Amino acid sequence: MKCSIASLFALAASAQAHYTFPALIAGTTKTxxxxxxxxxTGYVSNGPVTDVTKLDIRCNVGASSVSAPGIQTVAAxxxxxxxxxxxxxxxxxxxxxxxxxxxxxxxxNWDGSGEVWFKIFEQGPVFGSALTWPNNxxxxxxxxxxxxxxxxxxxxxxxxxxxxxxxxxxxxxFYISCAQVTVTGSGTGKPGPxxxxxxxxxxxxxxxxxxxxxxxxxxxxxxxxxxxxx
Length: 230
Hints:
Elements: H1 2-17, E1 24-26, E2 29-30, H2 56-59, E3 72-75, E4 79-83, E5 94-100, E6 117-123, E7 140-144, E8 152-162, E9 173-184
């Protein structure tokens, strides 16, 4: 019994040190957990993805091949985001990506494959005597869908990267969720650059393999492509 209780405490402590993004926020409306966000395998552990070469890096474990119950309608130019549970705990950058669903598919049945993902947001550190990360403690993260985003179905991906153990390759921890949305409007922009997951990152990228504590970095290279602002 003592061993079982100790194991439970260890699991609970591990889960509390991590986090997930379970619910979509459309404007000021928080939706139900996993209503529009794909529920990934093992989500109760709050555990991270650590291998950028695996399919898990796209939408988290098993989430490329499952669908959420609904697709949320959002307008181009509006604010959309995710809740964080319990909150963003580790130091590291925050990013958001989108991928347009091809003809013949919907946001509920497409796997997000190919060079289709474009970045709409990135947030790095503030430099000083130590790196500070503005997203630390966030219980939600909001992003603006570029106003010129073409209408249609999209997968909407949030990614926070924990860099507290990133001194060696595969030490970075990726906290990821993908939501299913339909973008409305009359946008005619051409999003890019486009990347694939896996494929967008290498474990040795300078923004993924570094010591963030000592010597204190004076620059930081954001992983992935440039932000498309529309």
